[in-house]
Amino acid sequence: MKKQMSKEDKMRFDSLCNQIIEIACGNFMFRQDSPGRSDPFDTISLLLNMMSEEIEDSCFNPQQLMEHPELYFVIFLDKEYHISAYTPNTPQILQWDKEYRGRPVSEILSNISFKMLKEELRLNRDKNYRRLLFVDFVIKNIKFYRAFCTVQKMIGSDSHISYVMNVFRFKNKEREGGKRRTTARSSNSEKKESTATKSLVKQVRLYILRNLHKELPSLKELGLIHRTNKTKLKEEFKKMYCITIPRFHMQKRLEKGALLIRTTEIPISIISQKCGFKDHSHFSRKFRLQYGKTPSQYRIENFWSSS
After folding, report:
1. Distance CA 136, CA 129 (A)
2. Cβ(270)–Cβ(230) below 8 Å
3. Residue 291: φ, ψ to 5°
4. Per residue in 128-160, pLDDT tens?
5. Average pLDDT for residues 214-225, to the nearest whole number?
6. Residue 202 and residue 180: Cα distance in Å, rounded?
7. How far apart are CA 135 and CA 195, in angstroms?
8. DSSP H stretches of helix in 107-229
9. b/e per residue, 273-288, with b = 16+ CB within 10 A?
10. In the chain, pLDDT over 70 holds for what percent of residues?
11. φ, ψ for residue 123 (rounded to 5)?
């Protein structure tokens, strides 16, 4: 007689399945928290996390091979997201001409960055993994200073400090060692520009894959998020992947939907929401265009074949 899986183990099993689906859809940022039980579920979770990190580092962060992060400055926030403290170098780096202690952090961040920061804390406040975020600090003349940062909740600290933003900059190891060659500067510059462009396009692709549950921002907004212009973004993405950004986004949403339809029993109306469609009929119409049948027909014909 088979041992019935407990409710908690069923939840952990479903969570692992969800992670595998995210990886299959190209989202290598998805992580599982380990409860520290050292059981088979825990082992699989750890292996999936390690695999995702390795794929992400090798495919989407090639620049990390040449650069390494260095802590640049730190900003502390209270529970209402007001600035409670910061390191002495912060005002000079961000070109402050007034005191920001006690002011909302939204005053020094772009709207998108502030929303991203709150969302990161909401989703990952109790997790061990701290991923680097792109954030745009507003400086003089309404310009932006882009930096990488991690943000996390402080535990057992001063009551006025609830969160900490660790802001990093990347240093080139070759420059530090003084080994950079002075010859063929033009060629090296072109290669670096090409590498930077490829890295940018890969980051945009990863951003899209991580947000399949949302509507696609306009090309202008995507460009602002990734500090480039929409024309360059549109041309370089199509050049690299032979598909436009909107079509890629739609294709991947539908692929995720098809994967969920044939491998889970989740209602199709819920699947359409998970794939970023507010209107179920819109999802069905687009799905039929790509797969030649309705989601219901697709499930009948394919569900058992993958079991």
Report:
1. 22
2. no
3. -110, -5
4. 556 677 788 988 776 778 888 888 887 655 567
5. 88
6. 26
7. 22
8. 111-124, 173-177, 185-210, 219-225
9. bbbbbeebeebbebbe
10. 74
11. -85, -35
Residue for token pair 């109306």: 269
Q: How far apart are alpha carbons 254 and 248 in whole angstroms?
A: 10
Which amino acid type is present at position 100? Y
Token couple for 79: 């529970």
Q: How far from 55 is each of 49, 59, 90, 192, 212, CA to CA, in Å?
A: 10, 6, 34, 22, 19
Domains in the chain (CATH in brackets) are 1-50 (no CATH), 66-174 (3.30.450.20), 195-307 (1.10.10.60)
The residue type of 235 is E
Q: List the beta strands (DSSP E) in the chain.
A: 67-77, 83-86, 133-139, 143-153, 163-172
In whole angstroms, give the CA distance from residue 33 to residue 46: 9
Q: Is 136 exposed, middle or buried (0-12, 13-18, 19+ CB in 10 A)?
A: buried
Q: DSSP assignment, residue 82?
A: B
d(CA 95, CA 296): 57
**HSE-up of residue 275 (Cα within 13 Å, Cβ side):** 31
Torsion of CA 27, 33, 38, 42, to 10 degrees: -30
pLDDT band at 176 (very low <50, low <70, confident <90, very high): very low
Three-class DSSP category at 67: strand
